[in-house]
Design a protein that fits this description.
- By secondary structure, the chain is α+β, with helices and mostly antiparallel strands.
- The chain has eleven helices and seven strands.
- It has a seven-stranded mixed sheet, sandwiched between helices.
- It binds adenosine-5'-triphosphate.
- Adenosine-5'-triphosphate binds next to helix 10.
- Catalyzes the condensation of 2 ATP molecules into cyclic di-AMP (c-di-AMP), a second messenger used to regulate differing processes in different bacteria.
- Probably a homodimer.
- GO terms for molecular function: adenylate cyclase activity; ATP binding; diadenylate cyclase activity.
- Its EC number is 2.7.7.85.
Length: about 260
């Protein structure tokens, strides 16, 4: 009896945690989009329906009841985009975050050469900033970025400063779009990223920055952007601009986030 009680409690906790994770992902998807307004609209209709039931207002309750009854199909139509992104997000996650799991065991630590050369990347960004060369660099963490790599040209080159700079050099055929880095390899160039429609992004930021916000809100990748206009370097993670004091601080933060 006691055992069943305990089992039920544990399952309840798992259940609550799973719902929390689900709500978090739904929030991440609808954050800053018009979908949040639709979602609020649906909640209001549901509450009014419950109120009409409570007050026994039969006619209105029936009409709203019918509406709620077919609501699930309506939801699929209205949230088609978000459902697509959600499935994409689940499908492209490396289950078990293999990399992190392996790193738990000290003796199985990743070998030095697969560690991302942060210094080379940040120094390249610094040089590109000084010469007002626009750049968009995405570093993969546990979410698989195959779906964006497919939109660009696949590569297999070790990360180093001159190569990054020459890829983004204005006359280079590879400068457009995003550069994808996995471990210490550049695995794609000219990748097209999903653009965020978060209305909170300041207007001075154009598509390059919106693309960096887009990929970091849909995956756990991190992004570095060098603005062609101002030469400023931005660091993005979890769909937000992450603050840093200077290049040294940026390197430290990147190393921390990639460890
Ligand atoms: N969805 C996208 N995926 C990848 N790269 C993109 C995407 N959209 C735009 N870019 C890249 O960003 C470049 C510049 O875009 P835009 O000028 O709108 O950006 P921005 O944020 O204002 O940056 P900057 O400050 O450098 O002008 C494009 O030429 C392209 O290389």
């Amino acid at each position: 009896m006691d055992f069943n009680f305990l089992e039920l409690r544990i399952l309840d906790i798992v259940d609550i945690l799973l719902v929390a994770v689900l709500l978090y992902y739904i929030y991440k998807l609808v954050k800053g989009t018009v979908a949040i307004n639709i979602f609020i609209g649906i909640v209001i209709i549901y509450l009014v329906w419950k109120l009409t039931q409570f007050l026994e207002m039969e006619m209105l309750s029936n009409v709203l009841g019918q509406f709620i009854g077919v609501g699930i199909f309506g939801l699929i139509v209205v949230f088609q985009q978000e459902i697509r992104k959600f499935l994409l997000m689940i499908g492209s996650t490396n289950f078990g975050a293999k990399r992190n799991l392996i790193r738990q065991f000290k003796f199985m630590r990743r070998s030095k050469e697969t560690e991302t050369d942060i210094d080379a990347i940040v120094d390249a960004c610094d040089n590109m900033g000084k010469s007002k060369t626009g750049a968009l660099i995405i570093i993969q963490r546990s979410t698989n970025l195959e779906f964006v790599k497919n939109t660009g040209d696949e590569m297999n080159i070790e990360v180093n400063k001159p190569i990054i700079e020459s890829i983004f050099y204005k006359n280079s055929t590879l400068h457009d779009g995003a550069l994808i880095i996995e471990g210490n390899l550049i695995t794609a160039t000219r990748a097209i990223l999903p653009v965020s429609n978060d209305r909170k992004i300041p207007l001075r930021f154009g598509l390059r920055h919106r693309a960096a916000v887009g990929i970091t809100e849909k995956t756990d990748a991190i992004a570095l952007v060098v603005s062609e206009e101002s030469g400023q370097i931005s660091y993005l993670k979890d769909g937000d601009f992450a603050m840093f004091e200077d290049l040294k601080d940026l390197k430290l933060k990147l190393k921390e986030d990639l460890s």
